[in-house]
Amino acid sequence: MALNAGSADPPQQVELGALRRRLVVESLAITLSAAAFAVVYGLAARSAGFSLVEALAMSVFVLAGASQFAAVGLIAGGVAWPAVVLLTFLLNARHLLYSAALAPWFRGRSIPYRAASAHVLVDETFALGLAHFRRVGRFDGPGYWIAAALVCVPWIGATALGFLGGQALPDPEALGLDVVFPAAMAGLAVALVAGRRELAAALAGVLIGVAAALLTQPAVGIVAGGLLGPLVGFLVPDAAHQGAETERIRAGDVAEMLPEIAEPPAERLL
User: What is the 3-state secondary structure (H, E, C) of the chain?
Assistant: First the structure.
C-alpha cells in the first residue's frame, strides 16, 4: 500500500520539535528554582511595605531576580532612589554582555521584536536560549520564547503566591532548592563551552567573581566576573585562527622552496 508523502513531517521539522522538547526538559529544574525564590521575593516585598500591585509590578516590569531582592532591601533600609537605581544598574550590567552575545542570532528581526525579547532576557533565558540556538544551528523564535515563558511566568505567578501566603511555605533553602539554580546554570554553562576561548572566559569569570565576592559583596562579584571573564577570553588565541595561520606560514615556506628545487643554482651544474 502506497504511503501518502504529504502525511509525513519533514525531517527538519521533526528534529526541531525534538530539540524544543529537550529545551523544555532542561528548563524544568530552573523553573522550579525560580518559582521557589519568587515566593521568597514576594514575602520580602510584603515585609518591606510593598503592596501586592507594587510587588507584581516589579516582577513584571523589572523582571530581574537579584536586582529585585537588592532593591527591596535598599528601599526597606531607606536608601534614596538614585542610589537604588545605580546599584541595581551595576548589578544588571552583565545583561549588556548577554545582549551582545545574542545579537547575531537576532539579526534581521524588527526593533519591537528585539525589544520584547530583551525584556525577558534574564540569566536563565540567556543560558537556555543560546544553548538551544547552537543546537538548532540558527535562530528559533518559538524556542526562545519557550525558554523565556518557563522562567518568567513562574517568577511572576510565584511572586503573588509568596506575597499572599509565603509565611505558610517552607524556606527554599530548607528543601535544598538553593542548590538547584546554581547547579542547573553550571550545567548549561558547560554546554556552552565550545573552545579554548569559552573555557578561559568561564574559568576566569568564576575565579574573579568568587574572589571579588569574598573581598567585597556578592553583587560586586557578579559584575566583576561577568565583565572581566569575557575580556580574558578575548585575549586567548582562537584555535581555528591559529591553525589557519600556521597552515598559511607552512604554505609560504613551501612556496619559497619550490624555485630552489625547480631551478638549482648555476654552480651546481658546473
Answer: CCCCHHHCCCHHHHHHHHHHHHHHHHHHHHHHHHHHHHHHHHHHHHHCCCCHHHHHHHHHHHCCHHHHHHHHHHHHCCCCHHHHHHHHHHHCCHHHHHHHHHHHHHCCCCHHHHHHHHHCCCHHHHHHHHHHHHHHCCCCHHHHHHHHHHHHHHHHHHHHHHHHHHHHCCCCCCCCCCCHHHHHHHHHHHHHCCCHHHHHHHHHHHHHHHHHHHHCCHHHHHHHHHHHHHHHHHHCCCHHHHHHHHHHHHHHHHHHHHHHHHCCCHHHHC
Record the cell numbers describing residue 19, joined without a space. Answer: 530539540
pTM of the full predicted structure? 0.64
What's the burial of 177, exposed, middle or buried (CB within 10 Å: 0-12/13-18/19+)? buried
Tens of pLDDT, residues 128-176: 999 999 999 999 999 999 999 999 999 999 999 989 886 666 665 665 5
The letter for the amino acid at 240 is A
One-letter amino acid for residue 225 of the chain? G
Cβ atoms within 10 Å of 69's Cβ, excluding its own: 18
Alpha carbon of 172 to those of 40, 122, 124, 161, 188: distances in Å? 8, 21, 18, 14, 22
Which cell numbers in the block locate residue 65?
Answer: 531576580
What nine digits make up the cell of 241? 585562527
Give the relative orientation of helices 141-165 and 11-47 as an angle to the nearest 10 degrees: 20
Q: What is the rounded distance in angstroms from the CA atom of residue 62 to the CA atom of residue 31?
A: 18
* Torsion angle (degrees, nearest 10) of CA 121, 115, 154, 160: 120
